[in-house]
């Protein structure tokens, strides 16, 4: 048995809108949705035999913090993370 080419596809999840935090709240909640489009179909020439993504990381900061600035080399920490 082969799949029907006009079979319905699963709908994309609708974004969840978080409840607003109370006024003057010291906390915030964020939600991140990662949708991978990297596949053997999108990269037929160089798709690896064991494809995977590293777990996501995140952080919050104000405008005075810079992890990297354009035109500057990456720090040793950023280089190690990327490699």
From the alpha carbons, calculate the radius of gyration and give it in angstroms: 20 Å
Strand content: under 5%
What is the overall number of helices? 1
Order of helices and strands: H
Unreliable segments of 5+ consecutive residues: 1-9
Mean pLDDT: 76
Fraction in helix: under 10%
So what's the overall shape? flat
Q: Structural class given helices, strands, pairing?
A: little secondary structure
Beta-strand segment tally: 0
Q: Report the span from N to C terminus.
A: 44 Å
Major β-sheet profile: none
Multimerization status: single chain
Describe the 3D structure.
This protein is largely without helices or strands. The protein is 8% helix and 0% strand. The chain has one helix and no strands. The chain has one helix spanning 76-82. The chain is flat and about 50 Å long. The termini are far apart. 0% of the residues are buried.
Task: Write a concise keyword list for the protein shown above.
83 residues; single chain; 1 helix; little secondary structure; disordered N terminus
């Amino acid at each position: 048995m082969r799949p029907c080419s006009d079979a319905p596809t699963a709908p994309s999840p609708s974004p969840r809108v978080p409840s607003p935090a109370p006024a003057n709240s010291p906390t915030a909640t964020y939600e991140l949705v990662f949708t991978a489009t990297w596949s053997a179909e999108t990269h037929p020439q160089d798709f690896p035999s064991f494809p995977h993504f590293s777990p996501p990381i995140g952080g919050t900061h104000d405008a005075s913090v810079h992890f990297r600035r354009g035109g500057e080399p990456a720090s040793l920490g950023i280089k190690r993370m990327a490699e």
